[in-house]
Amino acid sequence: MPLPPSSFAILGAGLMGRLLAVELARQGHRVEIYDAGGPDAGQSAARVAAAMLAPLAESAITEPGVVRMGHHGLTRWPQLLAALAEPVFFQQAGTLIVWHRQDAAEAQRLTRQLEANQHTVPELPALQKLDSQALAQAEPSLAQRFSQGLFLPGEGQLDNRQLLAALATEMQRLGVDAHWNTPASPEAFDPAQPGQPDWVLDCRGLGARAQWPALRGVRGEVARIHAPDVTLQRPTRLVHPRYPIYIAPKEDHVFVIGATEIESDDLSPVSARSTLELLSAAYAVHPGFAEGRVLELATQCRPTLANNLPAIRQPRERVLEINGLYRHGFMIAPAMLDVTLDILNTGQSALSERFELAMELDPHLDRPAAASAVGLRDASAAAVTALA
Predict the structure, then answer these.
(1) Domain range for residue 363?
(2) What is the mean pLDDT of residues 43-54?
(3) Helix, strand, coil content of the chain in percent (nearest 5)
(4) Which residue from 88, 118, 71 is spatially nearest to 19, judged by alpha carbons?
(5) Which residue has the higher pLDDT, 371 or 304?
(6) What are phi and psi for residue 21, nearest 5 degrees?
(7) Is 211 left (phi over 0), alpha (psi -120 to 50) or beta?
(8) What pLDDT does residue 1 have?
(9) Total of domains in the chain
(10) Of the candidates 344, 361, 11, 359, which has an alpha carbon nearest to the alpha carbon of residue 201?
(11) Are 79 and 63 in contact (CB under 8 A)?
């Protein structure tokens, strides 16, 4: 039976918080959202992300369940974006992977790994190997620069900042009560008591470390460059043993360039070394970046759990914590959204097996809708992290 009209307090107005606020408000629930920052999401990891939707490319560093979540997101994002009043740049033109001759051995290793992963998740389109002629047809601006490449069909990207702004507008339109510059923790609420919300959803990322000590920060450094001389048509990744990079082309010749992953929650400015490596690697892909203009060098820390996999857990009745999306936030957010809504509305999620999602349901709750722990590793790992 669907959840009757209820009231929700959502903590954290990053990507997950905004998606949940909009969808719950559309279902007729009363929603309040609290965030330590403002509507521009300046303190959120989502503001700095490249927002690539690349499940096969990311299969090189994650588990099949996350890959399936990413494949789910490729179908769901167009639906979610179509319901917004403001337009958001969305592209589904595939991912291109290239390498220099000296890195051919590393590229062969990656190719074998991606082919094996594609067999594990057969719903993904198979990668295509490109010779110099096919590469020139797929990406004319790289003709003569690379002799081989890989094309991953169906993968995509969106504009993260346009999306965050559009979701903020949609929250306002739907009557979501937004408390900006107002940090809040679950301890401030007593769900289902008089004058209190019926549910609390904690989506604060690293802001929730006091309640979820296993969270850690993984620092990422990103450059945004305006390069009118560069005409890359799709996200492009460079295979390199030391500093592999991605280049995500947004609208109006703006490119998001990143790759760095540092085990640190340091939010100080981008290091000189990372800047040199990012820009040098981008120049090696396309010399047009030399005359580009650096719009921004940004740093953020991705909220990450010990196994680098996302999780949903229940510390107490009617409180759910959604966290640990790591570097896959935009790729898997629709799947995490749909699982959370399923749990709230029906007490279970049919998507859980598809995503290898182990759930522990607390039999002592009035509704079976709150999960004690939801992890993406396996049932035993979920049981270890489950809260009574």
Answers:
(1) 7-47+161-211+307-385
(2) 95
(3) 35, 25, 40
(4) 88
(5) 304
(6) -60, -45
(7) alpha
(8) 63
(9) 2
(10) 11
(11) no
- Asked whether the whole model's pTM tops 0.85, one would answer yes
Last residue of a domain, one of 304, 320, 346: 304
pLDDT of amino acid 362: 57
* Whole-Å CA distances, 73 to 28, 155, 202: 24, 10, 21
- Distance between CA atoms of 256 and 171, rounded to whole angstroms? 27
The string over 326-337, giving b where at least 16 C-beta atoms fall within 10 Å of a residue's C-beta and e elsewhere, is bbbbbbbbbbbb
Which domain CATH number covers 370? 3.50.50.60
Q: What are phi and psi of 77, to 5 degrees?
A: -60, -45
Q: What is the pLDDT of residue 348?
A: 80
CA–CA separation, 127 and 72 (whole Å):
18
Average pLDDT of the segment spanning 224-246: 94
Judge whether residue 369 has pLDDT over 70: no
Residue count (the chain): 388
DSSP letter assigned to residue 215: -
Residue with token string 């005359």: 291
CA-nearest of 220, 387, 218, 260 to 311 is: 387
* CA neighbor of 312 nearest in space, from 361, 364, 363, 365: 361
Q: Report the C-alpha gap between 221 and 272 in whole angstroms.
A: 11
Write down the mean pLDDT value for the chain. Answer: 90
